[in-house]
Amino acid sequence: MKIAIVGTGYVGLVTGTCFAEIGVNVVCVDTNKEKIEALKKGIIPIYENGLEEMVIRNAKAGRLQFTTSLEECLNEVEVVFSAVGTPPDEDGSADLSYVLQVARTIGRNLQKYVLVVTKSTVPVGTANKVRAVIREELDHRGVDISFDVASNPEFLKEGNAINDFMSPDRVVVGVDSERAKKIMTKLYKPFLLNNFRVIFMDIPSAEMTKYAANSMLATRISFMNDIANLCELVGADVNMVRSGIGSDTRIGRKFLYPGVGYGGSCFPKDVKALIKTAEMNGYEMRVLRAVEEVNEYQKGVLFDKLQTLFKGDLQGKTIALWGLSFKPETDDMREAPSLVLMDKLLKAGCTVRVYDPVAMDECRRRIGDAVFYAKDLYDATLDADALLLLTEWKEFRLPSWAVIKKSMRNPLVLDGRNIYDSAEMEEQGFVYHCIGK
Fold first, then answer.
1. Mind listing the domains of the chain with CATH numbers?
2. In angstroms, rounded to a whole number, what is the distance separating the alpha carbons of residues 239 and 256?
3. Between helices 203-234 and 286-298, what is the axis angle to 10°?
């Protein structure tokens, strides 16, 4: 079986590589010539544990190829996955220009049946637009070639994407023809031999499922951050509250961790897009508006704590930041709380020293030399007036606090992810603050 993946961003590259891993012949397509040439050399544009080795292995075996031309491979493949970007427009709606351009290219060059699968996160109704564009181009050419459109939203967690794809807890597929259903069944069956967890549904429901899932997870995060902020005011401990409510099987323990807000490429964009979709259909997503509002507030919580502790005077203070990516095991800084915090600290007149295991280059690309890039976590704390933890990388869990205390000017730690024990930190001689306690 041979397929094409259009778009070699996070979703497209992981999807194409994992399909190649189980024996599918995959052609990854991208209009960025530099990216394609780099991929041919085994240089990947993102950080994802295990991905580089898998790309190199499958490219060497001939199962994974890279090209800038969809036209050249279109009529050799049975399925085309569209995994191009859908960035938010200024009004929060998803920009479908790249998705529709892929559809236009298909319509202009199609010679035989193909199944066109939307992998990008797109609003309800996008499949109909893709179908209409392809049909329009076919009509313009005066040809009648059959094709199908399907929706197959991704549910990959950055940092664990390969495992999520190779051993999915479910695969959501929206189809409206038996032919498309058979092709998608054939494609996913090798991943799910023991327990076929493909959920087939109509296309609009599949498109909505992705937005609903991410919005639910974002809601749980913002809810817990709201509870954490109230816990601080009333003298409760959010960690105990989280344990208490998480033991209820109707609620569960996942995504109940308070912190400094969610970021990344999915949650912020998808929440905004769902709000906009509702607005375009005459409905207001009141819960999601509150989720978004709480999240924006939460990104500034550590800065507010810092200002209180220094009585509003941060001018000239040296602040150390551990963690820049929006979550561990990725270099992704899109919508990361660290960006908001660094901006606030710099505007307040602070010197900012930062360290992240993999996101340093990405930070430098985004903000240049506005901050000091430390060589390791200990270097970041040199002469610091405060240390702020933003991303719970494993190497931050058990540092040598004795060394850190000697290197800091002021032994103050603000834990934005609640990974340290307050009693232990105080025994080590630190003034310790976390979220929701």
1. 2-201 (3.40.50.720), 211-297 (3.40.50.720), 299-433 (3.40.50.720)
2. 9
3. 50
Neighbours of 192 (CB within 10 A): 15
Hey, how many other C-beta atoms are within 10 angstroms of the C-beta on 312? 10
User: Which tokens in the block code for residue 204?
Assistant: 């609009």
Instruction: Please give the distance of CA 324 from its chain centroid, rounded to a whole number.
Output: 14
CA distance 218 to 140: 44
pLDDT for residue 111: 97
* Active site annotation includes 266: yes
What's the pLDDT tens digit per position in 203-241? 999 999 999 999 999 999 999 999 999 999 999 999 999
Low-confidence ranges of the chain (pLDDT < 50): none
Give the 3-state DSSP-derived string for the chain, with helices as H, strands as E and coil as C.
CEEEEECCCHHHHHHHHHHHHCCCEEEEECCCHHHHHHHHCCCCCCCCCCHHHHHHHHHHCCCEEEECCHHHHHHHCCEEEECCCCCECCCCCECCHHHHHHHHHHHHHCCCCCEEEECCCCCCCHHHHHHHHHHHHHHHHCCCCCCEEEECCCCCCCCCHHHHHHCCCCEEEECCCHHHHHHHHHHHHHHHCCCCCEEEECHHHHHHHHHHHHHHHHHHHHHHHHHHHHHHHHCCCHHHHHHHHHCCCCCCCCCCCCCCCCCCCCHHHHHHHHHHHHHHCCCCCHHHHHHHHHHHHHCCHHHHHHHHHCCCCCCCCEEEEECCCCCCCCCCCCCCHHHHHHHHHHHCCCEEEEECCCCHHHHHHHHCCCCEECCCHHHHCCCCCEEEECCCCHHHCCCCHHHHHHHCCCCEEEECCCCCCHHHHHHCCCEEECCCC
Q: What is the pLDDT of residue 194?
A: 67
pLDDT in tens, 350-372: 999 999 999 999 999 999 999 99
- Residues 391-404 pLDDT 10s: 999 999 999 999 99
* Cα(272)–Cα(276) distance, integer angstroms: 6
Residue 251 tokens read as 């609620």
- Among 345, 343, 259, smallest CA distance to 294 is for 259
- Give residue 103's pLDDT: 97
Tell me the whole-structure pTM to 2 decimals: 0.88
Active-site option among 266, 350, 363, 434 = 266
